[in-house]
Each structure stands twice: as structure tokens, then as C-alpha cells.
Amino acid sequence: MMEDSKREYSKEIEELTAEKNDLNSRLQKLSEVQSQSGGSSSEIEKMKKNLEEEKLKKIQNTSKKSGKNNAADQALKKKEKEMRKLQQDLHMEKEKYNKMVEKTRPGSIGDPGGAV
Question: Locations of Basic and acidic residues compositional bias (predicted)?
């Protein structure tokens, strides 16, 4: 489940990165058009400002997604560590049980009433 979330976040980050690159190319084209046409600079400045705001929002959104992804990774690592500890505890309990069964089995080495 966490791995699915991680994949989703990674996909969203890739999409946002692609959008950011698209915005950068649009900004570059606007700059070229402005230098070539000498058009209305106030209109172009508004467009640039809008584009920069969009870029900033995309970057912030990407950072948030990345933060969530890191949190999911940390939670997954914690669960894996807990699982390893529980597996180790289970193994130890199995060994204790097997030793106890061995002691209570008739004819075992430690059995005082064992076979002669």
C-alpha cells in the first residue's frame, strides 16, 4: 500500500517536473517574442509574472509531494524494522518451545526417568 503511494507520488512529481519544464520553455519563448516584436511590455510583464507564479506553485507542490514520499519511506522502514524484530522474537520462541518439547520427551538425554 505504501509502495503504491510512493509510485503515485513519484508519478505526480514527474508530471509536475514536466509541467515546470514546459513553463520554462514558454517563458523563454515569451522573452524571444518580446525582443523580436517590441510588443506591449506591460502585457508581457504581466504574462511573465503570471508564469513565474505558476512555476513557484508547481515547485511548492513538488516539494510537498516529495515530503509526503519521504514520510511514507520512513514509515515503511519503521514497519520493516518492527517486522524483523517480531520475526526474530518468533524464532527465539520456536527454539524455546523445541527445547522444552525435547526435555519433556521420554528417553531424552535430560530425562531422569528415561529408558535404560
Answer: 1-23, 43-57, 75-85
